[in-house]
């Protein structure tokens, strides 16, 4: 019999890899909700490194980053029933309001500590692109607009206002979940399992997953709102933390209101739209005023 061709082997390997990925995504509800966010974050240092070498790498790497995240969201959309595109009129005023607060509070932070939070001395990379090539500048800006307003709201709301808001619903159960998580950490895992807490929680189900699956979208608790807002906050630079807190509280309230009991649930659609409006307004502010520190 003839040996299989390299093309056939490559196709088979790709199919096996995809099958394994599909199975992994389906095994735990956290996986499809967290993976797009982690992939996007993992690309950030690569893009920064490439940009420092040559600005022309930016649109290519940014397109690769957003394209891979978009592919993940599309491929596993059936595992993400809450990821809707339903619109609610509150999305617009909330989106405009939170981004106005974001900029205003950021300016306050800069005024309080210019050395910590003020813009860096060298020109922003978009300014450098503008000086280097109009084509590179506008291509990069358009790609950034598409990524900021169409893609980022999808995976970030999926992670924060779905996975984290639901999966960190109860302080007590989240404490149990953290102990369970430590049991899988090298070096300390065995010690945790032999401790009183470890033995006490040994027979408990996986609490992060239990909370995520049992809590409906939009079910709000003080702890869940605080924890998910904290997660959202620490994923931004310190200057933007006050604005991130405002966004977190407002968007938790929006997802809770649009999915409240007794009404037809709208999923993440309204908060995705609000996030998209906010990011598009921020993009427009930066381009119009040349205020690149927010990008």
What is the fold's blueprint, element by element?
Blueprint: H1 6-27, H2 30-53, H3 57-75, H4 91-112, H5 114-117, H6 125-132, H7 134-167, H8 171-182, H9 189-194, H10 196-200, H11 207-214, H12 222-234, H13 241-257, H14 269-289
Could you explain the architecture of this structure?
It is a single chain. The chain is mainly alpha-helical and 295 residues long. It has helices at 6-27, 30-53, 57-75, 91-112, 114-117, 125-132, 134-167, 171-182, 189-194, 196-200, 207-214, 222-234, 241-257, 269-289. α2 (30-53) runs antiparallel to α7 and α4 (91-112) packs across α14. It is globular and about 60 Å long. The N and C termini lie far apart (59 Å).
Features:
mainly alpha
Radius of gyration: 22 Å
Distance between the termini: 59 Å
Largest sheet: none
Overall pLDDT metric: 91
Low-confidence stretches: none
What overall form do the CA principal axes indicate?
Answer: globular
**What structural class should be given to the helix and strand makeup?**
mainly alpha
Written as H for each helix and E for each strand, in order along the chain, the element string is: HHHHHHHHHHHHHH
Strand content: under 5%
Helix content: over 70%
The counted number of beta strands is 0
Count of DSSP H/I helices = 14
